[in-house]
From TrEMBL:
<dbReference type="InterPro" id="IPR014747">
    <property type="entry name" value="Bac_photo_RC_H_C"/>
</dbReference>
<dbReference type="Pfam" id="PF05239">
    <property type="entry name" value="PRC"/>
</dbReference>
<dbReference type="InterPro" id="IPR037097">
    <property type="entry name" value="Photo_RC_H_N_sf"/>
</dbReference>
<dbReference type="GO" id="GO:0030077">
    <property type="term" value="C:plasma membrane light-harvesting complex"/>
</dbReference>
<dbReference type="InterPro" id="IPR005652">
    <property type="entry name" value="Photo_RC_H"/>
</dbReference>
<keyword id="KW-0472">Membrane</keyword>
<keyword id="KW-1133">Transmembrane helix</keyword>
<dbReference type="InterPro" id="IPR015810">
    <property type="entry name" value="Photo_RC_H_N"/>
</dbReference>
<feature type="domain" description="PRC-barrel">
    <location>
        <begin position="145"/>
        <end position="197"/>
    </location>
</feature>
<dbReference type="InterPro" id="IPR011033">
    <property type="entry name" value="PRC_barrel-like_sf"/>
</dbReference>
<feature type="domain" description="Photosynthetic reaction centre H subunit N-terminal">
    <location>
        <begin position="5"/>
        <end position="134"/>
    </location>
</feature>
<dbReference type="GO" id="GO:0019684">
    <property type="term" value="P:photosynthesis, light reaction"/>
</dbReference>
<dbReference type="InterPro" id="IPR027275">
    <property type="entry name" value="PRC-brl_dom"/>
</dbReference>
<protein>
    <submittedName>
        <fullName>Photosynthetic reaction center subunit H</fullName>
    </submittedName>
</protein>
<dbReference type="Pfam" id="PF03967">
    <property type="entry name" value="PRCH"/>
</dbReference>
<keyword id="KW-0812">Transmembrane</keyword>
<feature type="transmembrane region" description="Helical">
    <location>
        <begin position="12"/>
        <end position="31"/>
    </location>
</feature>
Amino acid sequence: MEPGAITSSLDVAQMVLYAFWLFFAGLIFYLRREDRREGYPLERDNGALEDHGLIWVPEKPKSFKLAHGPVRETFSGLRDSRSHKLEKRYAFEGSPYDPTGDPMADGVGPAAYAERHDHPDLTIDGAPKILPLRLATSFYPAAEDNDPRGMTVYGADGKEAGVISDLWVDCSEYLARYLEIETTDGGGSLLLPINFARIRGPKGYFARLSGINPVQPGVYVRALRADQFQAVPRTASRDQVTLLEEDKICGFYGGGLLYATPDRMEPLI
């Protein structure tokens, strides 16, 4: 027999190849089971659950020990039990849904939000991560940037919605997350995610380059009309925001990009 041969029809190379095939098949099976720990069984449009079979879903949940909380288990069986104000446009599975009420207030479509835990995001030290500058006194806007505090907020209709009273910073990432607005009609303060704001002032790139400020200084928000700011979800505490509140606030502004005015839901062509 040739060197490396085990029998006249089997050698070491074949054994290694077969072992690799078995290992790879087992790896695929393992990974396909693991990716079913969350989101399964699948749910049909009518609420019925798909049959996931006997072997494809792990029997035991996987536990995760969180840094500042209790142990969380996957595959808890919890499902979204909220009743959404939507109706199907067509009578077949996969049909798009149309909102039946106020989509921004009802949290549907782009205004949807996840039911995250109702406690603040924390730093590695266990302190609230996102704080206003009135508490995070070691942070301040860069001298090269426009300081939005005191600037007027303009909605998509060009009308005044309020005045920026403070910035909320992420103490772990060293960046601004929210602008705090005092509304013009005395309705109290609310948060504006920095991603939905366009800050125009004398320190903008074009203004520095040309010495001309092309627009009136202020904070411009395309997502909402000025009258819609009063409906923005508020925080329970004036000095901190929870994960659930963050999702609701960002969802409301995100929904405004589609639902703030009727023409935004119309075709582009």
